[in-house]
């Protein structure tokens, strides 16, 4: 009786581990069969990103981020420039 229970428990644990190991995050993109997909497109030079000044509350209040200076809408402190 005890041996059959151990065998059942061992089999159930093995099946559970096998089933859960196949649920990983390893998602691969679908393979394309078109011949054009094998040729990589030429890389375009990246445009320089435009960085604008960002102002935030020194207390880190939610919703205090702004593109221009002013006061925090939550605590009324002056916003600080963060670049």
* Alpha-beta content class: alpha+beta
Overall mean confidence score, pLDDT: 74
Work out the oligomeric state of the chains in this entry: single chain
What is the general shape?
A: elongated
Helix content: 10-25%
Task: Give the neighbour order of strands across the main sheet.
Answer: 1-2
The SSE order reads HEE
Strand content: 5-15%
The radius of gyration is 29 Å
How far apart lie the N and C ends? 71 Å
Q: How can the largest sheet be summarized? A: 2 strands, antiparallel
Number of helices: 1
Poorly predicted parts: none
State the total count of DSSP E strands.
Answer: 2
Domain Heavy metal binding: 55-82
GO molecular function: metal ion binding
Protein name: Heavy metal binding domain-containing protein
InterPro entries: HMBD
Q: Care to give the gist of this entry?
A:
By secondary structure, the protein is α+β, with helices and mostly antiparallel strands. It has a domain at 53-83.
Strand-helix topology:
Blueprint: H1 2-21, E1 54-56, E2 80-82
InterPro entries: HMBD (IPR045800)
Signal peptide: 1-18
Keywords: Signal
Report on this structure.
GO terms for molecular function: metal ion binding. InterPro entries: HMBD. It comes from Hymenobacter cyanobacteriorum. Keywords: Signal. The protein has 83 residues and is α+β, with helices and mostly antiparallel strands. It has a domain of 31 residues. Helix content is 24%, strand content 7%. The longest helix is centred in the N-terminal third of the chain and has 20 residues. The radius of gyration is 29 Å and the shape is elongated. The mean pLDDT is 74.
């Amino acid at each position: 009786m005890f041996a059959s229970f151990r065998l059942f428990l061992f089999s159930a644990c093995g099946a559970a581990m096998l089933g859960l190991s196949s649920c990983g995050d390893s998602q691969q993109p679908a393979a394309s069969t078109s011949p054009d997909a094998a040729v990589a497109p030429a890389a375009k030079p990246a445009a320089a990103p435009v960085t604008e000044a960002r102002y935030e509350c020194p207390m880190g209040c939610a919703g205090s981020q702004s593109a221009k200076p002013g006061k925090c809408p939550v605590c009324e402190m002056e916003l600080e420039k963060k670049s």
